[in-house]
Amino acid sequence: MAAATNVAAELSSLTGQTWTTTQPDHRGVYLTREDDGLTLWLIAGWGRPNISLSLTREEMSQRHSYSDPEIPEIGVNFLTRTAAIVAREIVRRLLPDAEVYRVELAGRIARANAYHSSVTDNMTRLTDAADGVLTRVREDSADVRSGEVWGSVRVSSESVTLELRSLPIELAARVLALLGGI
To answer: Whole-angstrom Cα distance, residue 134 to residue 131?
Structure first.
């Protein structure tokens, strides 16, 4: 922990930003940049000391391991090198990639939040218009129940999949006529 505290002090000096340390368990130490929460993980286990970007749960949820680049990390022995050398290596080799990576993840999070908001708005609009016909309403889907008619609704941000079953012939003809008039 002392080595990490010294690295935090050197980072603060080099970047002009406040860096702090926390040690949640025996596996490693976190260095956190106070102004934006960017967090690095210093870990000495698993064969070689390294330093990597630490992601929040929300950031991890938007990471797709099959197509994403590796989480930025550098192999630098913070246990044997001086804090000044480690801090310079972090600033030179890790921070540029870590900051770009976080910006890309922030964009994904914003797009995912906008999509979910749109789906929720669309589901609310359908629920309000359905006048009690929708049952078991979930975030993006519901069951349709009205007399002998049953089916399902699945909502996306731009469209709805509507499946109806057991429609009387007259109702099916009216639905099809309505679709034909579009």
So the answer is: 8
Predicted structure pTM score:
0.73
- Select from 48, 45, 139, 50 the least CA-distant residue to 86: 50
Task: State in Å, rounded, how far the first CA of the chain is from the last one.
Answer: 68
3-state secondary structure of 151: strand
Please report the DSSP string for 32-80 in residue order.
EETTT--EEEEE--TTS-EEEEEPPHHHHHT--TTTSPPPPEE---TTT
For residue range 42-71, list pLDDT tens digits in order: 887 666 788 898 988 888 887 776 667 788
Q: Which two tokens stand for residue 103?
A: 């910006």
